[in-house]
């Protein structure tokens, strides 16, 4: 998708990008500082509504908080989704502070400490165990507290998902218990915990609908084999997520209708037949919040060096690690960028947008066409609702942390 398409999704008012119905310059004035992240509540609701409209009614939506743990977003989504997935004690507390019931919260991720597990068990949260060690810790916590913990086994499948931005299943993994080891683990701890089902998450940031559909079909087949080893009926079937969003012009948006049609076939067919008591869950983070957010930073200098024009902004890779190329570990491609207070104008100048850090890696837009921009103009980077602030090295060079607003 091109920058003007992202501008169109937010809309304009008085020639400026609109955020929550207000011109971006007014939002900046209310925030009182740049840089800042702004998340559009209307776009967030529209994404939830789209998923509700297309996915089977029986499918439950789980918000993967790791994508964006901003408390205001968590509070808002707690009233719109069915479940919340957390990956640390800090995220767990955000979820418990929201309106969602504790038994609708799942705790996933490797390396859970005994203290974190005790906290989850005490609160009545579902622990998604990732290893036999975690299973033993859950049992010990239950015995100590006099409770029977609810768990789901996170399974490392025997297949990999091609085309994912990050592969999290298949082959050796720190995530989940290898599928072939699950039966023995269930037998060892039978009766000590309430095993409600399985979680299979094979990869993230996938833009190919058929690959996601195939992974879901194979997941249902795998879980069918493993469910035979459960002491009771399968009640929880987390099919993962992995729905991607387009970040660069070469990316094509995910065909959600194809993914939804496959889910209808699975839910009405093998899932209904084999697991009548199960709640199928789709766990989404980036796809829910990614496209509702922008990063706004102010031009503090415009300079020309040997024929190349640079816009130097007051933000940078310390807030935008992914957009800058992950410390050079990824092939860097430009995220969609606009001049927020000149959003109605067509790009004319080829400029390079750089941040305020002392490294050439601090690159936010390389040789991009923007309307004539100068000092104090507002540069907006799109697709920033997920894995922005909390996935970036904010302490680098000691600059202040950016503000966050839900508008």
UniProtKB/TrEMBL annotation:
* Cofactor field: pyridoxal 5'-phosphate
Which keywords belong to this entry? Answer: Lyase, Pyridoxal phosphate
In Pfam terms, one family for this protein is: Orn_Arg_deC_N
Q: GO biological process: any one?
A: lysine biosynthetic process via diaminopimelate
- Gene3D superfamilies per UniProt: Alanine racemase, Lyase, Ornithine Decarboxylase, Chain A, domain 1
InterPro entries documented for this protein: Ala_racemase/Decarboxylase_C, DCO2ase_PEP1, De-COase2_CS, De-COase2_N, Orn/DAP/Arg_de-COase, PLP-binding_barrel
Q: Looking at the keywords, is Lyase present?
A: yes
Q: Does the keyword Lyase apply?
A: yes
Which enzyme type, at the first EC level? Answer: lyase
Gene Ontology MF term list: diaminopimelate decarboxylase activity
Among PROSITE patterns, the record links this protein to: ODR_DC_2_2
Tell me where in this chain the Orn/DAP/Arg decarboxylase 2 N-terminal domain is found. 45-289
Q: Which residues carry this modification: N6-(pyridoxal phosphate)lysine?
A: 66
* Listed EC numbers: 4.1.1.20
Active site per the UniProt annotation? 358
- List the NCBIfam families: dCO2ase_PEP1
Identification of the protein by name: Diaminopimelate decarboxylase
Q: What is the scientific name of the source organism? A: Microbacterium invictum
């Amino acid at each position: 998708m091109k920058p003007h398409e992202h501008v169109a999704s937010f809309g304009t008012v008085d020639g400026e990008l609109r955020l929550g119905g207000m011109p971006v310059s007014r939002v900046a004035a209310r925030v009182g500082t740049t840089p800042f992240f702004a998340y559009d509540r209307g776009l967030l609701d529209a994404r939830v509504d789209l998923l509700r409209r297309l996915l089977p009614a029986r499918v439950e939506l789980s918000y993967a908080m790791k994508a964006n743990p901003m408390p205001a977003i968590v509070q808002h989504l707690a009233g719109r989704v069915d479940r919340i997935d957390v990956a640390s004690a800090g995220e767990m507390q955000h979820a418990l502070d929201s309106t969602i019931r504790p038994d609708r919260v799942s705790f996933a991720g490797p390396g859970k400490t005994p203290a974190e597990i005790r906290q989850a068990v005490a609160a009545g949260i579902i622990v998604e165990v990732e290893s036999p060690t975690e299973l033993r810790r859950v049992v010990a916590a239950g015995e100590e507290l006099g409770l029977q913990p609810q768990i789901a086994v996170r399974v490392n499948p025997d297949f990999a998902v091609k085309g994912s931005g990050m592969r999290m299943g298949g082959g050796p993994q720190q995530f989940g218990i290898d599928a072939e080891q699950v039966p023995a683990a269930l037998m060892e701890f039978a009766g000590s915990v309430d095993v409600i089902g399985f979680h299979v998450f094979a990869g993230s940031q996938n833009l190919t609908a058929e690959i996601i559909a195939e992974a879901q079909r194979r997941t249902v087949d795998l879980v069918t084999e493993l469910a035979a080893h459960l002491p009771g009926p399968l009640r929880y079937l987390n099919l993962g997520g992995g729905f991607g969003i387009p970040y660069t012009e070469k990316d094509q948006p995910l065909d959600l209708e194809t993914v939804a049609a496959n889910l209808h076939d699975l839910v009405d067919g093998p899932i209904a037949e084999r697991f009548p008591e199960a709640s199928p869950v789709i766990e989404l983070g980036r796809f829910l919040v990614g496209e509702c957010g922008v990063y706004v930073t102010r031009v503090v200098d415009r300079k020309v060096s040997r024929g190349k024009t640079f816009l130097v902004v007051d933000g940078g890779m310390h807030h935008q690690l992914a957009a800058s190329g992950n410390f050079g570990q990824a092939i860097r491609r430009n995220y969609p960028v606009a001049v927020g207070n000149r959003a109605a104008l067509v790009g004319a100048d080829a400029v390079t947008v750089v941040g305020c850090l002392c490294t050439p890696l601090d690159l936010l837009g390389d040789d991009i066409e923007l309307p004539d921009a100068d000092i104090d103009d507002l540069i907006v980077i799109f697709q920033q609702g997920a894995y922005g602030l909390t996935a970036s090295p904010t302490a680098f060079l000691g600059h202040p942390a950016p503000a966050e607003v839900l508008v």
